[in-house]
MFS transporter (Mycoplana ramosa), 386 residues
Amino acid sequence: MQSEQAVKAHAMPDWPAIVAVVLGVTAFSVAQGVTYPLISLVLEARGVSSTMIGVNAVGFAMGLGAATLMLARLTQRFRANQLIIAGLIGCSLCLATFATFSSMFVWFLARFLLGFCASLIFMLSEAWLNVACPDRMRGRVSGIYGASICAGFAAGPLAIPLFGTDGGFGFALTAVYLALVAFATAMLMYSTRTVPEPSSTRDLFRFFRHAPMLIAMVFAFGFADIAAISAMPVYFVRTGHSEAFAAISVTVLALPTALAQPLIGYALDRLPRHSVAVGTAFVAASSYLAIPFLDTPALILCAFAMMGTASFSLYTCALTMLGENFRGGMLLAGSAAYALIYAVGSGAGSSLTGLIMEIGGPDAAPLSVGAALAVFAFAFLLGRRR
């Protein structure tokens, strides 16, 4: 049976909660967009080996995993809105730590805690968004949510050319920004009518059994997304393009993706949602498969932008369909499952694509990812018909 707050959410959106969620997830994506490149650049300037830089980055991933495993216990003891505010404050303190200390061990701990707090914000925000949003406008709100994530990731790295890598000013400024977002979120909490219900570890395993195609959708997104960010710039360089072209490709990937998500959300509210998901998967697959056969840089960048937009749209579809099909604690369990499977998919995308490129040559990378996305699209289409 649906809870009273879920019934109310289907009648009227909880706008203060939606605004708080969008603010929080944007802050999360800005923080991650800053820390990934900035920490690596700072450590590189200090003469730290690439191996130790990689080990330091593992701390963030460990924090993500720890938060996923502890989510059920935390939500049974604390309200979700309290955990989101605590996560924002925790992210702010971690960034302040980067600006204050230089010890590798301290940075590793801070990066672990940053991953833990950021993951809490991400998972709780997804569940709360679906609780606060009526189904008739779920796709559009999910599209705005996805656009905010993309915009945050794109805006985060701007702190590097603006404020440089010396003195920790980029970290400090981002810490202040997150603290302000935490304060604004706390103010919005007084007006909210909804809150995600607690989940359990049992719910997490139940979700994997009940929603295999949604899990596959998020895995495909993680695989294709990280392959585009990590492997495709290398592919462009190896196929004779300049490093500047490879760098521009990442920007071209991010901006259209952010702009397109509200349009995808509108389509999700007007068309059959499974059809939109299958369509975006086929577009992503076709774009990957077309890139090796294009010679003009403008056409390559257009295909690359279309591929990034369609790949991220898989996640917008999955988020919308999560709220459409699940209620109560299963919403939070689904958000945790999404975070976990995205980590698996992104790990597979970065490692397997690089290996395939080494074995089969540069063109094997986009062709293999495109083929994998095509298989997923056909499987999802057949699964829906059954």
Q: What stands out?
A: The radius of gyration is 20 Å. The first helix runs from residue 4 to 11. The chain has two domains: 4-189, 201-385. Residues 353 and 365 are 6 Å apart (CA to CA).
